[in-house]
Amino acid sequence: MNSGKTSQKDPALRRGVFVFLALAGVTALEYILARMGVPSAVLWILAISKAGLVIDFFMHISRLFGTDEGGH
């Protein structure tokens, strides 16, 4: 019935799941590396990369710099 609406949500859902798994994976990697005594600079780089994912996906910052004049 609403297959058009569902198909539009599929890419967003897939991207959301990917971001969730990426954040979980990087967090697990951070934990393992911290337990191994890796220099804090490496942990900072991983933390900043996670912040970048959050900013891009959840805060939609990339829309500010896009050239798409779509609706407005």
TrEMBL record:
<protein>
    <submittedName>
        <fullName>Prokaryotic Cytochrome C oxidase subunit IV</fullName>
    </submittedName>
</protein>
<dbReference type="GO" id="GO:0005886">
    <property type="term" value="C:plasma membrane"/>
</dbReference>
<keyword id="KW-0812">Transmembrane</keyword>
<keyword id="KW-1133">Transmembrane helix</keyword>
<dbReference type="InterPro" id="IPR005171">
    <property type="entry name" value="Cyt_c_oxidase_su4_prok"/>
</dbReference>
<feature type="transmembrane region" description="Helical">
    <location>
        <begin position="12"/>
        <end position="34"/>
    </location>
</feature>
<keyword id="KW-0472">Membrane</keyword>
<feature type="transmembrane region" description="Helical">
    <location>
        <begin position="40"/>
        <end position="59"/>
    </location>
</feature>
<keyword id="KW-1003">Cell membrane</keyword>
<dbReference type="Pfam" id="PF03626">
    <property type="entry name" value="COX4_pro"/>
</dbReference>
